[in-house]
Amino acid sequence: MGLALPRASVFLATLAVTAALFSGAQGFIRVQNGVFVDDQCKEFTFSGYNTWQPIESALNLCCGGYEALVGQFKEAARQNFTVVRMFGFPVQRGFNLQTAAGVYNEQAFKGMDTVIAEAARNNVKLVIAFMNNWNYNPLQTDWKCSYTNWTTTALGCDDFYTDPNSIKLYKNHVRTMLTRVNTVTGLEYGSDPTIMAWNLMNEPRNEKPNGAQEIQSWITEVAPYVKSLAPNQLVTVGEDGFYQPATCQANQANPVATTNGGPGGAWPVATGNDYLPNHMADGIDYASIHMWPDNWGRTDKAFGQTWLAAHIADTKYLGKPLVLEEFGKAVGGYLPIDKQEGPEAQYAYYKQTYDAAQASLQANTGLKGIMFWRWAGVDPTAKLADFDEAATIASNSSVFTEIIQPFTSALARKNADPTRAAVTGCTPVTGAPTTTTAKTAASAALPPSTAVPPTSGATAAGSGATATGAAAGGRRLMQGTAPAPAAAGAVSQNFVGKSTFTTPAGITAANINSKVTC
Questions:
Q1: Which one of 145, 213, 257, 450 has the fewest beta carbons within 10 angstroms of its own beta carbon?
Q2: Which residues are bridge partners to 375 per DSSP?
Q3: Which reaction does it catalyse (predicted)?
């Protein structure tokens, strides 16, 4: 989006943007006594959604451009959506954040700066995924296979979870993200209360025979590293939430039973997800799951009911809050014609899901947040595939007006009640950073002035040097070993306190599967 304003107008516009951006901002969200709390120890429960291509939108590359991004967060606040989940990288073909090992596209980073700033301006919290398990186009580099391609020590994509050099590259990326100084707000990402939480990865999977053990080992190593650099922000895995056979829930709740001998076999087990141990790991503050009945071949409502009930019930073993952070139900889409379902099925699935969320909130049984995929009211031109469009919810649809909107409004009224009691055992926070303490940078407070992504000159983090030796598609093989990640814990913060849980005595990541009863 280009702007041609006289100097005085630029200055006044900057003041207006900055004043709006930092008014009425909130502090960090914590986990205390097993629930989310705000800085005054009032329980924080939320309704939100997943957004698609906000970085590209901020840079006028798609989806209505910067003005649509501004409108998105304004409308989100008006609709009482308090948390939005996004990818911490673009997905448009040929436009990436990390273009080679340790080499970053500054324009993509500035797009993310703008997204975070617009969320802050509207008191919307963000959950951001560091990277992806999936690639959406052959030129994408912000996914796990790029990390293994950037080393000479990994033999395949799923070696990402165990290859020492791939793990070092991941940690380096985490540190680059968390120490990034937002060019709009002046805050480091890892010190910004606008960012409620991080996903270690969007939907990690490892299909090797010992994939579950390898993912668990990876989480155990990298989650504490993230927390050491961003102790005031929350961390979750970002996985689907499948169970391994060590717990009875694998047969009870997975979309395909462990004993299945049909086409695909027991594919949920083969993903390497091990829901309970994964979320018991040190450094994981809360549990999160996804639910995709169409993709998983289980569009029957009975599955959705069982899936949610199992994970909600299992919060008593974890002692941590649960979030349904990605959920969608398609109308038609890419499914075979004999399996496509109409809007009535979508409505019924959404109603069952939000009713389950409401029941859990009222009974205080663990589910504390829900985010659907996707909202046509905020990114109507974004396209991924027919299925993605088929799963998108319009603001004038009955799903939105009769299910999502009433749920969200009721939750907002509950959260606004000044008579709510503080959470037991929680100490209010004073003096911690908020978005009102952001440094003002006048020129950076304006929206991006160009919509054209750079074709060269992507810079290495913190160096200003241009990338050299990049192969086609932005890939560059790293010879030898990856540089060691910088020492953890160097980010200056006003620490708001460790997460506290209600995990029953004696339960650990090693034995939690055996403790579950079905």
A1: 450
A2: 393
A3: Random hydrolysis of (1->4)-beta-D-mannosidic linkages in mannans, galactomannans and glucomannans
SS3 of residue 100 by DSSP: strand
What confidence category does residue 487 fall into, taking pLDDT thresholds of 50, 70 and 90?
low
Identify the residue with better confidence: 381 or 60: 60
Map residue 432 onto helix, strand or coil: coil
Catalytic residue annotation: 203, 326
- How does strand 322-327 pair with strand 287-291? parallel
Q: Are strands 35-37 and 30-32 parallel, antiparallel or unpaired?
A: antiparallel
54: alpha, beta or left? (left if phi > 0; alpha if psi -120 to 50): alpha
Q: Is the dihedral of CA 32, 213, 159, 144 positive or negative?
A: negative
- 2-6, 84-88, 416-420, 432-436: least confident range: 2-6
Domain spans of the chain? Answer: 8-24+43-486
Rounded Cα–Cα distance for residues 375 and 402 (Å): 15
Domain 8-24+43-486, CATH homologous superfamily name and number: Glycosidases (3.20.20.80)
In this structure, is the dihedral angle defined by the CA atoms of residues 87, 89, 95 and 96, taken in order, positive or negative? negative
Q: Taking the CA atoms of the chain, what radius of gyration do you get in angstroms?
A: 22
Measured distance CA(26)–CA(382) in Å, rounded: 30
* Three-state SS at 460: strand
| Confidence (pLDDT) at 485 | 53
Tokens 């890419």: give the residue.
Answer: 334
Looking at residue 205, its pLDDT comes to 98
Let me know the angle formed at the C-alpha of 31 by 28 and 33, rounded to the nearest 5 degrees: 140
pLDDT in tens, 49-58: 999 899 999 9
DSSP-assigned beta bridge partners for residue 377: none
Residue 515 CB contacts under 8 Å (≥ 6 apart), including other chains: 317, 504, 507
- C-alpha to C-alpha distance for 348 and 65, rounded to whole angstroms: 34
Question: CA-to-CA distance for 281 and 498, rounded, in angstroms?
Answer: 15
| pLDDT, mean over the chain | 83
How far is it, in rounded angstroms, from Cα 186 to Cα 71? 23
Tell me, what's the pLDDT at 57? Answer: 92
66 class by beta-carbon count within 10 Å (0-12 exposed, 13-18 middle, 19+ buried): buried
Q: Is 0.90 topped by the overall pTM?
A: no
pLDDT digits (tens, 9 = 90+) for 260-302: 665 566 899 999 999 999 999 999 999 999 999 999 989 999 9
Q: How far is CA 318 from CA 71, 109, 280, 345, 434, in A?
A: 38, 35, 6, 33, 30
- According to the model, what pLDDT value does residue 265 have? 66
Average pLDDT over residues 182-192: 93
Q: Stretch 78-102: mean pLDDT, rounded?
A: 95
Q: What per-residue confidence (pLDDT) applies to 342? A: 86
Q: Which residue, 205, 211, 226, 322, is CA-closest to 282?
A: 226
